Amino acid sequence: MTAPNVLVLRSPGANCDVESAYAFELAGAKTESIHIRRLLENPSLVDDFQILCLPGGFSYGDDVSAGRVLGNEVRLHLADACNRFKEAGKLVLGICNGFQVLMKTGLLDVDDDQGPLATLTLNDSGHFEARWVRMAVEPGECVFLQGLSDIELPVAHAEGKFVARDQAVFDQLASAGRLVLRYTAADGSSPAGYPANPNGAMGDVAGVCDSTGRVFGLMPHPERFVEHTQHPRWTRGGIDGGVGLKVFENAVGYFR
Amino acid sequence: MLWEVDIHPAASQADRAAERLIASARAAGYSENLQAATARSFLVQGEHLGEAELQRICDQLLCDRVVEQAVFAPVGDDRLVATPERLTGDATLVQVLPKPGVMDPVALSAETAIADLGVERPLVRTLNKYWLTGVDAATAQSISDRLLANDAIEQAVLGPLSVDHLDAGGAYEFKLQHVQISGLDDAALMRLSKEGQLYLQLAEMQTIQRYFADLGREPTDIELETLAQTWSEHCSHKTLAGRIAYRDENGERTFDNMLKETIFAATLALRERWGDDDWCVSIFKDNAGIVRFDDEDNIAFKVETHNHPSALEPYGGANTGLGGVIRDTLGTGLGAKPVCSTDVFCFAPPTADAADLPPGVLHPRRVMQGVVEGVRDYGNRMGIPTVNGAVYFDERYLGNPLVYCGNAGIIPRDKSFKEPLPGDLAVAIGGRTGRDGIHGATFSSAELTSESEDLSGGAVQIGNAIEEKRVLDVLLQARDRGLYTAVTDCGAGGFSSAVGEMGEEIGAEVWLEKAPLKYDGLSYTEIWISEAQERMVFSVPEEKLEEFQSLCGSEGVEAIVIGRYTPTGNLLLKYGDEVVGELPMSLLHDGRPPVVRQASYTPAPIEPLNPPDKADYTDDLLKILGSLNVASKEWVIRQYDHEVQGGSVVKPLVGVKSDGPGDAAVVRPKLASRRGMVISCGMNPRYGDLDTGRMAASAIDEAVRNCVAVGADPTRIAVLDNFCWGDCEKPETLGSLVRAAITCHDLSLELETPFVSGKDSLNNEFSYESDGQKQTIAIPPSLLISAMGQVADVESCVTMDLKQAGNALYLIGDTRDELGGSHFALVNNLTGGAAPNVNGLAARETFLAMHRAISGGLVRSCHDLSEGGLAAAAAEMAFAGELGAQIDLSSVPFAGPGDTVATRLFSETNTRFLCEVAPENEAAFTVALGGRAAKVGVVTEDPKLTIESPGGAVVSAPLDQLKAAWKSPLAW
């Protein structure tokens, strides 16, 4: 199969669309950035693509709560198109704000008849923070994380604290292999503790996949580590290339 | 029906907002008994809005049910006032709402989202609720005033709300207003100037009086306002670009245009000197300065100040300050793409005792928190990394904090110039016009007083970053499709300055009734001078209008034709069929009466500074590292996204744990290119108390050497000036500024470093009454130099953290006895001494040599020497790299008299670097530096800093102790 087509979803306030598209292109994909208004006018546009990427940023200013307004637009008006996309075996990646949006769309399988199973809420520090974090990867079925065991990436968010409805729900998500990315201390150990866990997330959770492993959301930014000079310690040596690129290569490789 | 929805934390969750409030209340000295509960709330109004719909709005939009719970009821219902169960005891309820007309972005988004749920035309306002126990009602009021609400933009209600509808504004009935100016004597003219918030000077009022006397009529209100806006200090820089008679110890000098004959003149001379190699593109004429970057693109850079608004409302002032300078980048040429921001602040020490504050002054800690949050929320939402900055502290910034916001962008070479054409339409896009920000331009020319908050609340605004992001998105697409001939931002003065500037060479006709409004009731004059944010004005050829409007509409941006650039040489203002104002462009732009201002400068006599002779200076070093200016600003930096756009190469914090102070930031504006942009700054108001000339020289040297320290090519560094000064009607205050400007000229020529843009903010004085006497606090002269450098390949960049034990440490540049204004003097309460000077020609050679070494890969780490001199630089490099350093003070090259251990350790002589060099590169490094490098020490495994003098160790401390001293003061 040839290079997959990636739809990078723009929206008012999305602001990582350019570098996310660039990362997919480095990984060998073709990309097109499309505004949510185009999609709302014509939902079947998504059928031309194999990968849907919801990039980072502040969709609609994160007003009310992060990702809520865009998440509602997708859930209320694009549910059919998105479900068709998912059922066709295609891939969905939500990064940072894209993850916050995904949590509210229904695509990540984090809802039951009593409502949402989990959420991403305000950091324990009460404000936005930007820093690099280390994570342990347990890829399981997650297409995007295959071949990775640990990874360093930057986070930059105010509402990234993963909270499950209760411990039972958390355990159920964990045992289903859905909590694929966890913050660790700098030496790789757990629990991470602040600031290695930058937001106070329950169980150090940094990323979640759906039950198929084809829909994946994460708070850190893999598109900001696609080459070595983006790493905070590249001038100290020992950094070969950008490990975040692997996330995009895995997605592209899935269609080869 | 008007409902209120209160969002509380769920029973399982902590009330974090309440915890933070209690902590800050205790820090501010309130009772230990204070307990609190909080809710964020929404007033929601809609016809036929019922309980079932409200429940759906809560579940699907307003309330995150995993961590929150909602209480909703019609406004006035007891359930909304009842003390939440998590709090025990009798509570006082404080409710804080934005004042009517103040931007409430969350409410706007909520309205859209509620409409998306099927509710017709909902209206929303947000508020915050605080239930306080353990304090009486008077204390609750005090907490509300000091910590919860800012009267400039918010209203606080103790107890239940009494609002019954949210619709703002009433119908406007047109009535043309004339202002009587004929026959007024000088005193009456000045009264009109002040009471009308025109803030024009007498000669200017007299000129206006004569102009209308010749026409045989009175001006309309809008004509008077237009002149006041255009002639304001903020828009025209009449003081610095005016006539000045200057006198100092070197004699007298007169200027017709001071800035043009100093700073601009140096750049012009450099461009002439460079001839075909001139790399400046557009200098001192557009919204930002533009220089060449590579074969396809140029880069633009601008730094603005937003001091007066930030003094009254720190969050909104800083928020719109950054928003404004980003629009400068967008409005440069045909529109540059913003790539990164820099933010520099000056505050009074946050440790100030609240009881000592003069009336009308916000606590500096609150100012600092608000300013940082304002920059954070705007920059992060725009997706523009904030990569550089600095924070300075001095008591004299108490009434006048300084907020410098800068932005750099990239622009294709063929889009770098604009020219509106006669016949083009004037099209306004972005935010709607409201009553916010009336008189911002003229207000910035006024001295702040303890009553400013009441007088000028309208000049304070909150931004809506997402509106500006939408504008950015469509602007860049429209630019690339060639849909307009010129663009500029609506900054100070609103439409009046934007349309006035663009139509300066042509003429313009404006149809004020067409401007889209946030609410009804604005007069034609309010529409014309409103400084509502997030608006830009384009000149669009008629045949491109449809495509332009359709592109804007496709991303939810309003684009409305408000006039036409007509070749009449006049500005014609209409409201419907009525002409409300008519002024020749020549009067607006060249009609200001020339005023000759007096300026004098007497350098302070150099008093000797005798450093104490000690056996051990470790304690001095610890105090310097822990002084507010030097201490880590990590609390600020981490709240900014410094990596969005993916171009980050050298981050603001560097080293093993990413917590060491980087000298300059490096970003790649083009992801597929290795070429880098380098951003740094230099400033030291403390030197200005001794000599503003040396202060200016030091700031330039510091900005440039910070750039060079990470690898920038010194032959491609452009700088900006931002003068923040006191009242320049005082000859000695203006003289101290002219002194600095002359130094800028001289050093720019010697370093071959061009100034490409700049901005000034004068009148930074605060006055209040104390014991019946007028007291004035003037800020210290504060010249910020911002530098934008370039590096051919970012792979050659270096950082300041030590890398490898066994490497050698080299000091570049002689040290002199220059402890005046130093941090060593500060922590020891010493006065006198000489402020550091700069030998420009020698500095240029040093910078070139440093660049040869760094670009040749001979340097493992490099740090510039600034506050705290050699000792502080060595300590920072060591703890950032988690490696020890051993330095031999006797190897430090010293020039001139005053050679002591203290001066060797702490003198702040300019043009010095400390470099780490691997043994195999030492020979090549020494050659590259051409005799400027002295080997002074070695990197060690042992995690401590030792500085030896012939008598023994004069500094000796473990890295943990040094780092803790540096990190703790602002670890909020």
UniProtKB/TrEMBL annotation, chain A:
PROSITE patterns tied to this protein: GATASE_TYPE_1 (PS51273)
One GO location term (cellular component): cytoplasm
A GO MF term: phosphoribosylformylglycinamidine synthase activity
One Pfam family, short name: GATase_5
SUPFAM superfamilies: Class I glutamine amidotransferase-like
Gene Ontology process terms (BP): 'de novo' IMP biosynthetic process
Sorted UniProt keywords: ATP-binding, Cytoplasm, Glutamine amidotransferase, Hydrolase, Ligase, Nucleotide-binding, Purine biosynthesis
Superkingdom per UniProt: Bacteria
EC number: 6.3.5.3
Name recorded for this polypeptide: Phosphoribosylformylglycinamidine synthase
Source species of the chain: Posidoniimonas polymericola
Phylogenetic classification of the source organism: Bacteria, Pseudomonadati, Planctomycetota, Planctomycetia, Pirellulales
Gene: purQ
Automatic annotation (TrEMBL), chain B:
Keyword Lipid biosynthesis: no
Residue ranges occupied by any PurM-like N-terminal domain in the UniProt entry: 286-411
Keywords: ATP-binding, Cytoplasm, Ligase, Magnesium, Metal-binding, Nucleotide-binding, Purine biosynthesis
Keyword Disulfide bond tagged: no
Lineage top rank: taxon: Bacteria
Family per record: Belongs to the FGAMS family.
Primary subcellular site in the record, as a coarse category: cytoplasm
Reactions listed under catalytic activity: N(2)-formyl-N(1)-(5-phospho-beta-D-ribosyl)glycinamide + L-glutamine + ATP + H2O = 2-formamido-N(1)-(5-O-phospho-beta-D-ribosyl)acetamidine + L-glutamate + ADP + phosphate + H(+)
Pfam (any one): AIRS_C
Domain Phosphoribosylformylglycinamidine synthase linker: from-to ranges: 189-238
PANTHER family xref list: PHOSPHORIBOSYLFORMYLGLYCINAMIDINE SYNTHASE SUBUNIT PURL
InterPro entries the record matches: FGAR-AT_PurM_N-like (IPR055181), PRibForGlyAmidine_synth_PurL (IPR010074), PurL_linker (IPR041609), PurM-like_C_dom (IPR010918), PurM-like_C_sf (IPR036676), PurM-like_N (IPR016188), PurM-like_N_sf (IPR036921), PurS-like_sf (IPR036604)
HAMAP family: PurL_2
Pathway terms, separated by semicolons: Purine metabolism; IMP biosynthesis via de novo pathway; 5-amino-1-(5-phospho-D-ribosyl)imidazole from N(2)-formyl-N(1)-(5-phospho-D-ribosyl)glycinamide: step 1/2
Name by which UniProt lists this protein: Phosphoribosylformylglycinamidine synthase subunit PurL
UniProt binding sites for Mg(2+) 2: D328, D489
Record-linked Gene3D superfamilies: Phosphoribosylformylglycinamidine synthase subunit PurS, Phosphoribosylformylglycinamidine synthase, linker domain, PurM-like C-terminal domain, PurM-like, N-terminal domain
PurM-like C-terminal domain location: 422-570, 804-947
Domain FGAR-AT PurM N-terminal-like: 632-789
EC numbers for this chain: 6.3.5.3
Organism, scientific name: Posidoniimonas polymericola
GO CC term (a single one): cytoplasm
NCBIfam families per UniProt: FGAM_synth_II (TIGR01736)
Taxonomic classification: Bacteria, Pseudomonadati, Planctomycetota, Planctomycetia, Pirellulales
Catalytic residues (positions): H234, H306 (proton acceptor)
GO BP, one annotated term: 'de novo' IMP biosynthetic process
